[in-house]
Amino acid sequence: MLAAIVLFVVAGIAEIGGGYLVWLWLRESKPIGYGIAGGLILVAYGIVPTLQKFPSFGRVYAAYGGVFIVLAVLWGWLVDKRTPDLYDWVGAAVCLVGVSIMLWAPRAS
Q1: What is the pTM of this model?
Q2: What is the three-class DSSP state of 87?
Q3: Which positions ≥6 away from 59 have C-beta within 8 Å?
Q4: How confident is the model over 40-64, as pLDDT tens digits?
Q5: CB count, 10 Å around CB of 4?
Q6: Is 1 helix (H, G, I), strand (E, B) or coil?
């Protein structure tokens, strides 16, 4: 379970970080190197989820969506300096509960 969580976090940081670099390049007129680095990081993001042990692509990516939401709230807080409110935290917690149900609920096979 710990390996799965680490891979979800690494993928999330890669997706948000890569997207952020592209954002800086296109929206804030940073040098093209930001865009190139962001694009390469986004390629790495596409690879990381394939390292998950779960057999279903759809389930992995659906669960990752919940983790992404939590990481995006944290990124906004730490990088963009936008303090999350109660509803941001409650929404993020609901997403994590959903992820847990999707990935670790007992199934008949």
Answers
A1: 0.80
A2: helix
A3: 102, 103
A4: 999 999 999 889 888 788 888 888 8
A5: 17
A6: coil
